[in-house]
Amino acid sequence: MSERIPKGALVLAAALLLCALPFYLDAFWLRIGLFSMAAAIGAVGLGLLTGTAGQLSLGHAFFLAVGAYGYTWLAGEPGPGLPTPLAALLAVLLAGAAGGLFSPVAGRVRGIYLGVATLALVFLGHHVLLTADSVTGGFNGRSVPPLHLGGFSFGDDGPQLVVLGVPFGAEERLWYLGLVLLAGTWWTARGLLRGRPGRALAALRDSETAAAVMGVDVARHRSAAFVVSSMYAGLAGVLLALAFRRVVPDYFGLALSVDYLAMIVIGGLGSVAGAAAGAVFVTALPLLMTRYADQLPLVTAPGTTEGGVGPTEAARYLYGAAIVLVLLYAPDGLRGLVRRVRARPGPASPAPPPTARPTASAVRTKEPTP
Prior knowledge:
There is one protein chain. This protein is mainly α. The protein is built from 15 helices and six strands.
């Protein structure tokens, strides 16, 4: 049987591949990667809340909006005009504070009741984004100030940068920022799941009564899970704002919250890698279908209403069907499917030929002669 490749070697090869992609991909593919990385960060946070802690949330889009608009207002004009790294950090903390304000509700209700309560956040937040013109810009939104770190700009406003003959614009620069943020999210989330907090949240998901008997503070851990999930969503909102370069209220609606639920269900509840894989699938599919709409059957180009459905609607049909298939045939999602494939034993090596047993005539000794 062939030996498996060490996990560390696979991680190193994947990291080198991701770091090399900006030298070979155009802006379209880099934007898909940026949106996927931002979605993966937010999906990891929702996975901790819903997949690990067992708390249904339909308000994830609200906390993404807090992060995106918080950074835009704190770093921009009108606004305090803070240094952009400080504005990004405060936007993440602001999203966590919003989750903390809602955490008493999360600590007392559960199931569908918590889902309805978080759904109210989406409608309330959308109304505020449309009416608070001085902060959000109203219906037309606001332009996002580029991030500057130590004199280095992650936008197109800085000096032109050329690396190994390849011009590095905003997409290329933000690509490496997204990789760093995603790696930090991956590392912290896996550490949380493998530590005592993760075991306590898993116990809450299985049985709150049994968790309380074992000494787990139920209300405290449920509230903490909501705060941590909100901070991950705020970080995802900051990266999304930098990638979009303009934030508008209509993007942060109910459809976005449903998309995030689809990500963690398709990827696998309670899995960091599964949440990231589901985020890439749900985020990249409509963008790819929009680009190749003229080559796909029953799909029309954006703005055309005859002869089929739009690429966004077609993408929703496809990953809606993917959710049904996952629930029926792979309840643990893509991550569980990959785990089962890797655990499947390889082809058995051929058995050695049986050794011939000696016959009775071969072992019969010759009788001594008189």
